[in-house]
Amino acid sequence: MTRVFNFSAGPAVLPEPVLRTAADEMLDWHGSGMSVMEMSHRGKEFIAIHAQAESLIRELLNIPANYKVLFLQGGAIGQNAFVPMNLLRGRSGADYVNTGEWSKKSIKEAKKYCNVNVAATAEASHFTHVPQQAEWKLDPNAAYVHICSNETIGGVEYHWTPDTGDVPLVADMSSNILSRPVDVSRYGLIYAGAQKNMGPSGLTIVIVRDDLIGHALPITPSVFDLKQQADNDSMLNTPPTYAIYIAGLVFNWLKARGGLAAMEVHNRAKAALLYDYLNSTSFYASPVAPDDRSLMNVPFKLRDESLDEAFLKGAQSRGMLQLKGHRSVGGMRASIYNAMPIEGVKALVQYMKEFEASHG
Ligand code: PMP
User: Fold this and answer.
1) How far apart are CA 60 and CA 346, in angstroms?
2) Angle 16-24/241-256 helices, nearest 10 degrees?
3) Domains along the sequence of the chain with CATH
4) Model pTM?
5) Which residues are catalytic?
6) Given this model, what pLDDT does residue 2 score?
C-alpha cells in the first residue's frame, strides 16, 4: 500500500489511525454485527456514537453549556442561507466582512434574505489581508456580523477575534476549525463543513448559542430550522451517520494527541517550515500579508509561472498531490490541515528547494 502526501483543500487528508480503525470496524462495529453505515440512526449503537462525537467536540473546543452542537447536512454553502434565515430575529440586515472567495459567496447568498452591509472588504489588496477592526463600518442594528475565519482559497486567516459587542459574531470556520483553541463564547454561531479538519464531506457542524435558536423566518425549511433540529438532537431527518462516526474518531484522535493546544503547536511548526522558506527565497512568493497568513492553506506562486506545470509534475512523481492553486488565483496551494504530518511539509519544502536549485 502506498499513501501519498495529499495537500488537497478538501475533501482532505484524514489521520491514518482513524482510517485504520474505520477499516477494522467496517463489517462489525463493536460486536454489533453491523457496519455503522447499516445502523438505524435511532438504534442504541448509533445514538451512542452520536453522543460520543458530541461530547468529544464539546471537550475539545470547551464549548459552554449554553451552546448547542448540531450535526447537519447542506455544507457550509447551505449555511450561507441557513444563517440569515435563522438569525435575523426581526431585523432587516446583517454585517459581512469580505476577505475573499468564501466571504463573497456568503454575501451573495445572504442578499436573498436580508440587506447586507459589507462592513469591510479586502478587495483593494486582492484579498491578501484581513481588514483591521478599526476600519470596519459596523451597523449597530445588524442582526449579526459574519466573517470567514480562514479563506481556504486565498490563504488568509484571522489570528484575532473580532469584538462585535452585543451583536452576535458568526464565523464560517470550515477550514480552520479544530486547528487551534477558540473561545467559543465570543461567537453567536460557528459553522463548518467537515471535509477539511473533521471527516468526510456530507456533515456540517453548527455550534450555536441557545438564545439565537427559535427565530427562524417562516419560509425556513424544517431541516434548516435551528430550533427543530436542536429539539430533535439533529435528527429531524436521517443524519449523515457514517460521517458523524468518522468525525467522532477524528475527535478522539485529536484528544489523544493532546487536544487543540497541542494541535496549534504542531500546526504552527508545520506552517513555519513553509513560510520561513518562502520568506527566504525570491523564486517563490506568498501573496498574503505576513500577519494574516493561514496556518491551514498556504498559497504560493512561482516567480516564473511557465514552470508551474513542471513543478506540479515533479511533485506528483514524489507522491505529493493536489498542490495546484484554485483556478481563481492560480499558482500553488498547500493545504496542511491537522492530519497532514510534518513529514509531508518537510518533503514539500525539500522538493521546493531542489526545484529552485535546478530551475532558479
Ligand atoms: N466556506 C469555506 C471557507 C470553504 O472552504 C468551503 C469549501 N471549500 C465552503 C465554505 C463550502 O463548503 P461546502 O462545499 O461544504 O458547502
Assistant:
1) 27
2) 130
3) 17-256 (3.40.640.10), 259-359 (3.90.1150.10)
4) 0.98
5) 102, 172, 196
6) 87
